[in-house]
Write a structure and sequence with these properties.
alpha/beta
């Protein structure tokens, strides 16, 4: 059993869940227990002292995730091995057990490690999408040695007590080294749950069957909207292959989601009722990650970014979808409050990114590096050594100054949480002062491009102007009132 002894769902409760999960009445009782406990811990106890509305949004995201799982059980769309992985790892270790571990760490004033990492073991891809952040092609076959990938995952699991790993690319299902691929990694690390970002075109019946057998992989398949939008960016016929992948995953009981790149051309569509109904209700999608186009990688183009006004619309729609419709959807930028702001550069509970060359970066969308994990290993170091780079320290310092762990009434606007996108001048300064190097030619060009720098800075300032009032009124003003009341009570007592 992979649930830790500190997890409140370990032992008898997990065993009960495994036996009774197919029973609707008992399952609903279990879900109500879990949701009640989550609300108590996240919102009411709130040991980290974050703004209450922030904690409410964290709870709602967890609630929606649990309800999405309930739907899988109701529709009998989950293999036995996947059920086992979801209960023991995703629920027992990550969702619920992690709350207990981090609560104790905060109370005991202990250092908290990163919560997960993202790794791209290969740059190769069978598609050539417009504006790809990784500039992947079928020609570029750069990849990490399997033993390096294995060591990275082993170290982060042991050293951080981390049981969640994100695999990106390139196309992850193309990765092969020494005869082994992504499924072999998942099988070897059965105590980790893997989120794999994929274009979906390689998920035939055989692959779907393998995913159902290992039980600890969920594919997040890339779409850009519906057929026209997806094929326009990814190539003619790709959308139809994606629908076939959905069908295969449903038939073998593998939960899957979608990964959406939002641009100024599809920003309204990807949060529309039509889009949500088609993917969640008709296609059986469990979750959706929205990544607003970030101008890095192949043919970076600032004009393709979601406009500030579109971003505000997306934020408002996403709030409705999450709060009122119970949709399990997260926006890498607009959902900043859920993660307490930027989680990059190895922040406590956060993550960092390792690419196919072994280059270590603060984030998938922050293509500047100060370390290479292969070189770190050659020097006799381990994964923790990269946390001490000047680049990572500079970003974590910015996070603390801006919002992270500040008193609830002083937390900076987490609707604009990102240094590289929303506060570009801060990121630019961190890159130059730390002497970080660009991870690719496009990143080097962007750093020297004054027009790019000015456009990114103006973009962040514009979004802040639109969202600062929301942050102040809905998130901070109530905290300031509570703080002033507490101060007054202290004075009276004194």
């Amino acid at each position: 059993m992979f649930a830790s002894k500190d997890s409140f769902v370990s032992g008898p409760l997990i065993a009960l869940a495994e036996l009774a999960i197919r029973n609707c009445t008992i399952r609903r009782t279990f879900l109500k227990m879990a949701q009640k406990r989550l609300y108590e811990e996240v919102v009411l106890k709130n040991v980290t002292k974050r703004p209450r509305r922030v904690q409410e949004e964290k709870y709602l995201m967890m609630r929606n995730m649990l309800n999405s799982m309930d739907r899988l059980f109701r529709e009998n769309r989950i293999s036995n091995q996947t059920l086992n992985g979801l209960l023991k790892i995703m629920v027992g270790e990550i969702l619920l057990g992690d709350i207990e571990r981090r609560k104790k760490a905060y109370q005991e004033n202990r250092k908290i490690s990163p919560g997960f990492l993202t790794i791209s073991p290969t740059k190769a891809c069978n598609l050539c999408c417009k504006g790809c952040y990784a500039a992947s092609t079928s020609v570029d076959q750069r990849k990490l040695d399997y033993e390096i990938v294995r060591r990275i995952i082993d170290e982060k699991t042991r050293l951080w007590n981390s049981h969640f790993t994100v695999i990106s690319g390139g196309e992850p299902f193309l990765y092969r080294d020494k005869g082994k691929g992504i499924v072999d990694i998942a099988r070897e690390f059965s105590n980790n749950y893997f989120l794999v970002y994929t274009n979906g075109t390689l998920i035939g019946k055989d692959m779907a069957a393998q995913l159902a057998e290992v039980g600890n992989i969920t594919p997040a398949i890339s779409v850009e909207g519906l057929e026209e939008e997806t094929d326009n960016r990814r190539g003619r016929g790709v959308y139809r292959k994606i629908l076939e992948a959905f069908k295969n995953l449903r038939s073998f009981g593998v939960p899957f989601g979608i990964s959406v790149t939002a641009t100024r051309d599809n920003a309204k569509l990807v949060v529309s009722d039509e889009f949500i109904d088609f993917y969640f209700n008709q296609q059986g999608v469990v979750y959706a990650w929205i990544f607003q186009y970030m101008p890095i990688g192949r043919g970076y183009d600032v004009s393709l970014m979601v406009t500030p006004e579109q971003r505000l619309h997306m934020f408002q729609r996403e709030q409705t979808l999450i709060r009122d419709q119970g949709v399990f959807i997260a926006d890498f930028w607009n959902s900043g409050p859920v993660s307490s702001g930027c989680i990059s550069a190895g922040r406590e509970g956060g993550y960092f990114y390792i690419d196919w060359n072994g280059d270590v970066m603060p984030c998938v969308f922050f293509p500047y590096t100060a370390d290479n994990i292969v070189e770190v290993y050659r020097r006799g170091g381990n994964i923790d050594d990269v946390l001490n780079s000047a680049l990572f320290k500079s970003i974590r310092s910015w996070q603390r100054d801006y919002n992270y762990m500040k008193p609830a009434h002083e937390v900076g606007n987490e609707i604009v949480p990102c240094p590289i996108r929303d506060h570009y001048l801060a990121a630019n300064e961190a890159i130059k002062e730390s002497h970080a190097r660009a991870a690719d030619v496009a990143a080097e060009e962007a750093l020297k491009d004054q027009g790019y720098c000015q456009a990114m800075a103006f973009y962040g300032q514009s979004v802040s102007r639109l969202t600062d009032v929301i942050w102040e009124e809905k998130y901070i003003a109530p905290e300031r009132s509570r703080w002033k009341m507490g101060e007054a009570q202290t004075e009276i007592t004194a």
